[in-house]
Amino acid sequence: MGAWRRLFQFTKPHLWRMVATIGCSVVAALFDAFAFSLLIPFLNALFGLPPIPLSGSLASKMLQGTIGIFLDPSDKMGSLQHVIWIILVVMVIKNVMQWLAGQFGAQLQEYVVRDMRDAVYKHLVRLPLAFYARMKSGQLIARVLTDTDQTKSLATELITRGIQASATVLSYVALMFAISWQLSLMALVVVPVLTLALQPLLRRLRKGHKRLRNDYGEMMSVLQEVIGGVRLVKSFRAEPYEDQRFTGASGTYSAGMVKVSRAALASQPLSEVLGTIITVAVLWFGARQVLLDGVMQGSELIGFIAVVLRLMQPLKALTQLPAVAQGALAASERVFEVLDHPTEDATDTGTRDVHGVSQGVAFEGVGFTYGDAPVLQDITLRAGKGEVVALVGASGAGKSTLVDLIPRFNAPTSGRITIDGVDTQEIRLPALRSLVGIVSQDTVLFNDTVTANIAYGVPGEYSREQVERAARMANAHVFIMELPQGYDTVLGDRGMRLSGGQKQRLAIARALLIDPPILILDEATSALDTESERLVQEAIDRLLAGRTVFVIAHRLSTIQHAAQIVVLDRGRIVERGTHDELLARRGAYARLHALQFAAPSPEAAAVVAGEPA
Asked: Is 466 a residue whose pLDDT tops 50?
């Protein structure tokens, strides 16, 4: 019931559509049942009997009170014509109401799913990076798009079909009791029997559908990875390997779907067999009441049987509703797993705003643990305003983890980080991140215009002149003007139209535009040709001016003028100092430096080997 209750929260903004759907469905069902009750006077008039039965049943009293004035027992053909016209009018009204109910129901389900999809997306982009580290992107995409769409069947079945079927069933049941309460009780035995019989089946379906949604997410993850890394796949001739990965995931999903379908399809024959048994029993006992007991007229029995047969379809829809809803409930549970995860805003303990940096950034005994493994230990470091601090070390030394702590992508597990003496945990996240600009080696560009990519996230805040000024400072203006529509050129998915150097210059222009006092630079020149490297390095030099900068250095030649070089090894600072100071020590930095030169001197070779020069 928890999932149902939470899903209902999304219907509240559209409550009037729900009320309209229910109202139209109820009116349509009442007119539908009334149309079938008109079968009784039609048959009586056809066979020369009084149009209104004389049995004294509630049905005869209802007919007398509604259409009695239109029926003349002495005019059989006239009464027959009146009944036919009334049936036509009633059926027209019923179908108009049913159409309106369908329209309101369709709007309700689409808008509810839209609101849920939007809510999941807005929540997802506000979750911490640690959440993304645990989840595959394909699984997340499946939850935002596929799982939310799956919940549509809940709105469809519950609001449109479910309410319509319920209203129809209740109307028919009321008519059946009006004709004969004894036969009605016998006919309705099928409902509790079906409900109890289907419970084990429903539990299996819920578990099966939840497993299916996970299998679908795995299949989508493989597909997304291959599409995103198709160049790598082809370069390593890995098509057969990827074939096996995808067909394996696809086969698992299809096998699960077959199992779920086998269980789901069992509900229909079960309900139909039980319904047929009840119908045959009603025929037998109804015939006795007409032929032996004389408490019913033949027209009433025929009308009752017609209502029972008509009742089978909506009753079958109601009994199948729980089975159909299991897939949607399983999908909704996966959606709520995302919504239940606390966002960064919800866990933000900051209460202060900081609008600039006047002193610098300091790490005070900072440690960070991922799971049970320590990644950083006892990091004490200070970067003054306008200083460039370079972080070097082998892969996995903790360089990226260290800089990720500054904008609080992760939180330190010990120690603290301060900006101008203020603990970053006390600064509101939006204010903290407005102080930090990041230029990564893996530049992310979006399928949008050049202007939108440079002024990313703040459309309309900067003028075209400001965007162009940032592009000029980043050495990007010339190549931008050579694009087909200049600054209005759409760059394609992930900026596929641009070279690596051009992407990096746009990323630098993006950072120059927002003018952050703190800059994190994952060295952007390691994979560029000489000319691109020169242009990018010039832009970087402009970007560094006057900022507190943390550079993750891959090429040591680019950080020789850094105010402080910090060498990390297994999460600890093992050396720090200027380029010349560290070379003179002939320690870890000197060994890294010597390894990056193709023809090291004998002295450098001795340093690499750890021997005295």
From this structure: yes
pLDDT attached to residue 402: 93
pLDDT (0 to 100) of residue 611: 46
Q: Which pTM value belongs to this model?
A: 0.72
Say what the pLDDT of residue 195 is.
59
Quick one: residue 360, left, alpha or beta (phi over 0 = left, psi -120 to 50 = alpha)?
left
Report whether 313 contacts 188 (CB < 8 A). Answer: no
Domains and CATH numbers, the chain: 2-341 (1.20.1560.10), 352-435+517-608 (3.40.50.300), 442-515 (3.40.50.300)
- On the question of pLDDT at 486 being above 70, the answer is yes
Give the per-residue SS3 of 60-87: HHHHHHHHHHHCCCCCHHHHHHHHHHHH
CA-to-CA distance for 153 and 321, rounded, in angstroms? 10
Number of H helices, E strands in the chain: 27, 10
Strand order in the sheet with 422-423: 373-384, 360-370, 414-419, 422-423
Query: What distance lies between CA 244 and its chain's CA centroid?
Result: 28
Distance of CA 39 to the CA centre of its chain: 51
CA gap 337, 341 in Å, rounded: 7
Enclosing H/E stretch for 574: strand 572-577
